[in-house]
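Researcher: Next sequence.
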Amino acid sequence: MIGIEVLQSVQFVTAKGKRLVVLDADDWEALIEWLETIEDLQTAQQAIAELRAVGGDRQRAGWLRWDVVEAELA
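Model: Next structure:
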């Protein structure tokens, strides 16, 4: 189920004067995953735009070299 389908599947209840949403836990997790994917795509699009703005020069774009990062993780 994609995010918009999850949002359309909610049920509304009223408790103590407040209108609340009831959502299946599996649907909630699918919604969170969908939102995280959108966030990841936005981050990638921003990084690509920044890279293009500096003519493809990864160093000028502030990108780290993988071999340096890998060495720090080891």
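Model: The radius of gyration is 20 Å. The chain has one domain: 3-73.
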